[in-house]
């Protein structure tokens, strides 16, 4: 049933039933199924059932960590932490830390607290001083614990969070300057500065973080961060947040290599009129305007291949209010009737920011049209535009 099925639920039943008898003979099949995130949980249960008779077989769960992605790696880690023979092994702890952070595909909050609760976190904070791969994983783990405590827990739910943060700061000080350190220090400044229970210990930690920031922050560190795919996006977000205009030439270069949302957002906020013209001219690279014009207005969010480039397109549309040339305003008007509600919302935000003397009867009509939009967030953006422009 599992090996020849095409229905996910039937395959799950096949794994469950087929592993009830002579399961060890089917180990190679189970290991293959386990690589698919839909079937990892079911295969790992079967392997653990076999391990009840042959405990050495539970090591296969650890061996599955490197090729597993997203919910597959998360399911494996949730199993491994409940196996004393595995989780008490420091090398197993290292692997769940590294692969849990490397392979979660953008949902670290689903596994970070589970890892932090079940490994020697203080020990790995020390190891991160010399182990580069552990350092990268620790930076991601601590960022997640501090900034994304839901749904399972964060830094405040761990024993003695102040000591953990102090160890983390010490680890960062022992490392050579890189963009991960700068990003970590920025997160720590926000966390310690906003703490509602800031006692002397946290104020001292904040002072140490600020001192380290002063010593290590450098435009060249940001430039290096822009050149690596795994740090590029967060580096761009930091540049936008802190409004670091000195690295705009490097952002332009990054945009030309890959016009993604983050580079577009930086240029939209900090760029010159020439940068806005460059964003304007890049629209045909991102979306097919002719194809979009032929689609019916969607009452729901659009997901799938047809939404490719829509976020980037919408961010540029919003930025065109700063440009405010006749061609730019015409593009905003077209976007106000786009089939994708996210783009319609961006157009309303752009209309809100337009100079009053640029508002004409057509814009007024478009705003009134969006006040009746099927999506509430588009209607909200239109309402704000209407209130400011008094149309």
What would your notes on this structure say?
With 391 residues, this protein is mostly helical. The protein has a domain at 282-391. The protein has 24 helices and no strands. The chain has helices spanning 8-18, 27-33, 40-51, 59-63, 71-80, 84-87, 90-102, 112-118, 121-127, 132-147, 161-174, 179-193, 200-216, 219-226, 229-242, 248-257, 261-270, 273-286, 289-293, 310-323, 326-335, 341-353, 361-370, 376-389. Helix 11 runs parallel beside helix 13. It is globular. The model has no long low-confidence stretch (mean pLDDT 92).
Percent of residues in helices comes to 55-70%
Stretches where pLDDT is under 50 for at least 5 consecutive residues are none
Largest sheet: none
Q: Determine the strand fraction and express it as a percent band.
A: under 5%
- Give the helix tally: 24
- Reading the helices and strands in chain order gives HHHHHHHHHHHHHHHHHHHHHHHH
Q: Structural class of the helices, strands and pairings?
A: mainly alpha
Average predicted confidence as pLDDT: 92
Rg over CA atoms, rounded to whole Å, is: 26 Å
Query: What spatial form do the alpha-carbon principal axes imply?
Result: globular
By DSSP, the count of extended strands is 0
- From the N-terminal CA to the C-terminal CA, the straight-line distance is 64 Å
List keywords for this structure.
24 helices; 391 residues; 0% strand; mainly alpha; single chain
Give a short summary of the structure.
With 391 residues, the chain is mostly helical. It contains 24 helices and no strands.
